[in-house]
Amino acid sequence: MSKLKALFAAATMFAAGAVVVPAQAAVFGPDAAACARGGGEAAVLVNVEGFKQRSGMLRVQVYGDNPADFLAKGRKLKRIDVPVSRTGPMAVCVALPQPGQYAVAVRHDVDGNGKSGWNDGGGFSRNPRISLTSLKPDYREVAIPVGRGVREVGVVLNYRQGLSIKPIAMASRG
Question: What is the C-alpha separation between 43 and 27, in angstroms, rounded?
């Protein structure tokens, strides 16, 4: 990669709130430093993969230990929005107030309009199966324990494909 391209890539990640850690992928979001320093504070590093398109915005929302709050409007503990990177999986760090049980919900707003649409994708911690008739998994299916330090969790995005919702085929993942 030329020096100019490398400089442009670094500037783009900086503008998106990414922290570049040598020999690792960039960590995105305003809380990125919480995952980079690896201290005793509670944080979750959400590794998102399976993008249908490399456009729009990625939203990561974290919910606390009250199942009634899960996916309820205005009841999230924390929300982070970042532009979708040009390639690869994305790691988004979310600093948490303390160790405990948390649930992670991720949405890929493909067109970046801030509204949920048929072409948008989504996923949850622990990757439960979802369908057109059951878009909201039970809190117990997605809750994860987070202790002191950084807890990594993988989320595979699901998109509407005909009458089902599922991950994009492996060959077309970006």
Answer: 13
Query: 24 pLDDT band (50/70/90 cuts)?
Result: low
pLDDT at position 88 is 92
Query: DSSP assignment of 9-57, as one string?
Result: HHHHHHHTT-B--TTS--EESTTHHHHHS--SSEEEEEEEE--S-S-SE
Max mean pLDDT among 5-9, 69-73, 131-135 falls in 69-73
DSSP 131: B
Collapsed DSSP state (helix, strand, coil) of residue 96: coil
CA dihedral angle for residue 165, residue 95, residue 41, residue 101, rounded to 10 degrees: -40
Q: Give the span between the Cα atoms of 76 and 81, in whole angstroms.
A: 13
Residue with tokens 């456009």: 55
Cβ neighbours around 122 below 10 Å, total: 19
- Asked if 88 and 25 count as a contact pair (C-beta separation under 8 A), the reply is yes
- Nearest CA-CA partner of 68 in 103, 97, 38: 103
- Count Cα atoms within 13 angstroms, Cβ side, for 80: 24
Q: For 76-130, what is each residue's pLDDT tens digit?
A: 999 999 999 999 999 999 999 999 999 999 999 999 999 999 999 999 999 999 9
